[in-house]
């Protein structure tokens, strides 16, 4: 604790050589808010409660409705103002049975999980021969005749990265692979999970069919199962599989965003949106994706409020649907896009330690960025030259030009758990969660109290 | 490599102060065998082949029959003599569906796996209220009236240990819990997995019903699910579950041991049995339990043979049924118990580094123990004062008085994988596997060539 305090001072003194820090919230505020946030109980309590009392909560399902009710009650109990659910409707894909077995040459079961919007097999399943592509590029390059009538299998590896950038690259196998396979006449597609672990727990995730493409059954094998299938294929005999991947699509199901506010003293100064998503994938309890994000946003807003009413309203947005296509973000923008938004920030990458801060602020706001960087440095967070991009739940705001800050979490172990049954409370590290709350609290405090005019209407 | 050689010399010199090492195999033999075994390819090849080309192989099933055929062909190809399967029959318990959900107060699915010999629910499942016992002792102490008609839930934790001793203690919840619960009138029992990981992968395992006790559905929750259920119970409302645990029992199914030999030059000197088991649990591919054990035993026997014909026959015993009650061991003893057995040794605790050697040799064999210890020391293996006990596949031999040596593997991560779907090839570490082969090869070489008369007829 002592170490943190002296670090703060050093960082702030350094910052003050270059920028008029005193124009923003006083340095003492940041240190006090940070120290209080490092003892935060709210983020853990929120995460524990949501994952225990609701559990899995796929968007547009009765479980998400329970999550919504749970969150409204919780946020009211925590003292937020203007707490409400804002309903909308959306299409829902529902998982059925996920089963696969090698019929020949070496009969055995494989563990897999259908991808969002997967086509459904009949109840009795389908049979087919596997055609193997080590990478997505190999599938793309393959003549349709080599794929037609077969089960395409793409199995490229993915390495853990601190900034999560490997997900963008390798995730293409999930996002585009199914449409490519279908367009070449495949009867189904299997991919190696977009994940960095070695457990028999597949990573699901959404994919959208390209225009005009017929949905086919699409699923991710766990990493050990994908490696097993590669070995079996390597024996050189034709490999025949049986797949049962039943699922269904429902139209116009109820979903909704949950909103809660810390009202600011200056309504004309614009709203600071602190976002996360309340929905989760169906097989885990969505602890790191994204109960912690919602816990962090709520806890940080409360830490700011405890230090005194901020100038700007802090609006916590818990989007009801992120995993399956951003319906929550679109509904929020439709309802609130014309309001003045000073800044948007989102937590949706687990709750391991924040290690970097990225900014996208308007011209003339370097002083604010510098003061935030200085307040974050004692938490071990370095400022970057990269432009902040926000997350899916604030994407329409960011696209419309709302300023954004990213508090980047360490993603090294995120893709061991992401979208698997293993995304459960025991994976959350309390000390790291609290560091997140502290980083968020000092950032929200400085932004919400900044004297600059900022944001767009 | 250099380090290993000089270590060897030092250890052997130390040993020679106390015992007539030269009466046994020459020191050069151990060093040469060890160095060759540290480059072994057979153990990996065996493990990779069995887990890929057969996969899961529950005892008494068609998969075990395929494993038997596979092993016979493999051992013949490797150059063993007298390779054959020795058939017997046994009862077989077959898993059906394993499903559980919390009906109230917080509806959500739980991940679990039926225990061996579990009773079956009807296809539509059963419903009941949970009665929670933090430890097995709490269940034992409970009045029957508090358990009757309910689903008993025992959730005591287990810590990883290098020697695996925590399994003996905490495994009682699996071995005795179901019979105790049934005798008090429970309609089912759930236990926290006997495991040290935090993945949504339950640990199954066998349990035997005590005499006169009615089988009830019995299953292990994954560790995160058990912790979730404890949290839900902690909210103080009655917790109602729906369980679907279907399974069936078959009588007199074919199983069989696989035997392969390195014939010795002196038939009167007795046989050295090197054992493992070929069967596995049904949800993983049985890589560490116990494909590696069979790979190590076979590879080590071949390393000895490469160095010259041993005095004693080395008989590799791959038992066809260990997991479900030792039918393979009993069948072997029935067929071969009257033959002269010089020593028995077994590998059935994964393939992480051997760290300790235990002996149970007849009076007057201290010199042999000392020379083996000296040959193992360069591999980082220390001799203990504990008496060797052998494993399940050689238990009848050990009970009959056959000498035994235990090469104890490091069990620190064994119970992260044991009896789960996660027991797959990717968990095997090649360098550690080779250290096992080296430890086994030097031990088998010294025992098979020892000039002492040993063993019982
Ligand atoms: Zn997310
Ligand atoms: Zn075993």
Automatic annotation (TrEMBL), chains A, B:
GO terms for biological process: proteolysis. InterPro entries: CPQ, Peptidase_M28. Keywords: Carboxypeptidase, Endoplasmic reticulum, Glycoprotein, Golgi apparatus, Hydrolase, Lysosome, Metal-binding, Metalloprotease, Protease, Secreted, Signal, Zinc, Zymogen. One of its GO terms (cellular component) is extracellular region. One of its GO terms (molecular function) is metallodipeptidase activity. Residues 1-25 form the signal peptide. The keyword Hydrolase applies. It is found in: Endoplasmic reticulum; Golgi apparatus; Lysosome; Secreted. The keyword Endoplasmic reticulum applies. Residues 257-441 form the Peptidase M28 domain. Homodimer. The monomeric form is inactive while the homodimer is active. This is Carboxypeptidase Q. It comes from Sphingobium xenophagum.
């Amino acid at each position: 604790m002592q170490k943190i305090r002296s670090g703060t001072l050093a960082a702030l003194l350094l910052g003050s050589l270059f920028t008029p820090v005193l124009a923003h919230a006083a340095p003492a505020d940041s240190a006090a808010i940070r120290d209080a946030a490092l003892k935060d109980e709210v983020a853990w309590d929120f995460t524990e409660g949501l994952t225990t009392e609701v559990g899995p909560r796929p968007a547009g399902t009765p479980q998400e409705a329970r999550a919504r009710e749970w969150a409204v009650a919780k946020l009211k109990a925590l003292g937020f103002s203007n707490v409400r659910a804002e309903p909308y409707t959306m299409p829902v894909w529902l998982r059925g049975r996920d089963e696969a077995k090698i019929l020949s040459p070496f009969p055995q079961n494989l563990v897999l999980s259908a991808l969002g919007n997967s086509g459904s097999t009949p109840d009795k399943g389908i049979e087919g021969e596997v055609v193997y592509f080590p990478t997505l590029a190999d599938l793309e390059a393959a003549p349709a005749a080599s794929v037609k009538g077969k089960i395409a299998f793409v199995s490229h590896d993915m390495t853990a990265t601190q900034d999560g950038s490997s997900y963008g690259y390798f995730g293409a196998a999930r996002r585009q692979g199914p449409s490519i396979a279908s367009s070449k006449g495949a009867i189904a597609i299997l991919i190696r999970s977009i994940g960095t672990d070695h457990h028999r727990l597949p990573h699901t995730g959404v994919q959208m069919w390209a225009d005009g493409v017929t949905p086919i059954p699409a699923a991710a094998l766990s990493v050990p199962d994908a490696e097993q299938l590669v070995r079996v294929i390597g024996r050189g005999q034709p490999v025949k599989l049986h797949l049962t991947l039943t699922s269904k699509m429902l139209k116009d199901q109820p979903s909704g965003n949950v909103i809660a506010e810390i009202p600011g003293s200056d309504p004309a100064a614009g709203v600071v949106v602190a976002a996360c998503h309340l929905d989760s994938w169906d097989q885990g309890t969505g602890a790191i994706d994204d109960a912690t994000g919602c816990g962090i946003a709520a806890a940080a807003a409360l830490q700011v409020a405890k230090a005194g009413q901020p100038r700007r309203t802090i609006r916590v947005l818990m989007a009801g649907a992120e995993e399956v296509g951003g319906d929550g973000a679109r509904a929020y923008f439709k309802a609130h896009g014309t309001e003045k938004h000073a800044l948007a920030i989102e937590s949706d990458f687990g709750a391991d330690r924040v290690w970097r801060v990225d900014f996208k602020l308007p011209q003339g706001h370097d002083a604010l960025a510098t003061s935030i960087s200085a307040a974050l440095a004692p938490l071990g967070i370095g400022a970057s030259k990269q432009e902040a991009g926000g997350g899916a739940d604030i994407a329409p705001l960011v696209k419309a030009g709302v300023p954004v800050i990213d508090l980047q979490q360490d993603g090294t172990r995120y893709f061991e758990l992401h979208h698997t049954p293993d995304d459960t409370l025991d994976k959350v590290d309390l000390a790291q969660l609290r560091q997140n709350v502290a980083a968020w609290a000092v950032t929200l405090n400085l932004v919400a109290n900044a004297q600059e005019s900022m944001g767009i209407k």
